[in-house]
């Protein structure tokens, strides 16, 4: 049960590693739904920012 959740979220919030983290999302989903939720929020935020310009 000891998963590096904070580390995973930090990677997801990093622009450079965002896509790479998404590609591994299936593996993450099996362990922690919270990380998936964080990914969804970040993606929505990115899309919202892109739509404002």
From TrEMBL:
Name of the protein in its database record: Uncharacterized protein
Source species of the chain: Hoeflea prorocentri
């Amino acid at each position: 049960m000891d998963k590096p959740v904070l580390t995973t979220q930090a990677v997801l919030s990093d622009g450079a590693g965002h896509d790479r983290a998404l590609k591994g999302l299936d593996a993450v989903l099996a362990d922690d739904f919270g990380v998936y939720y964080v990914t969804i929020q970040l993606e929505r935020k990115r899309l919202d920012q892109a739509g404002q310009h």
